[in-house]
Design goal:
With 89 residues, the chain is mainly alpha-helical. Helix content is 80%, strand content 0%. It starts with a helix and ends with a helix.
Length: 89
């Protein structure tokens, strides 16, 4: 499925279009959005955790769950980087 999406993206970029004609530009936009959304997600998780900790100090025992959620967000950003850097040639 990933190969199909990569081929579809490549075909969409290489077809003559007034907006996007450079596949490198498309990769840059894709990676930029992926990293920006990952940073936004990490900030949102951290902010929500701090709010919960301020309301209920006993919530500090669930810090392991927050770390796991943050790690999943980071893995998503890493996969986006790998897709953009290696699969979309």
């Amino acid at each position: 499925m990933v190969q199909f999406l990569a081929e579809t993206a490549t075909e969409a970029v290489t077809k003559t279009s007034e907006v996007v004609t450079n596949p490198i530009w498309a990769k840059g936009v894709m990676l930029g959005l992926a990293f920006a959304m990952a940073a936004f997600g990490l900030g949102w998780v951290g902010s929500s955790y701090m709010k919960a900790l301020g309301r209920n100090p006993e919530a500090g025992k669930a810090a392991g769950q927050v770390v796991i959620i943050a790690a999943m967000i980071e893995v998503t950003a890493l996969l986006a980087f790998l897709l953009g850097a290696f699969l979309l040639k």
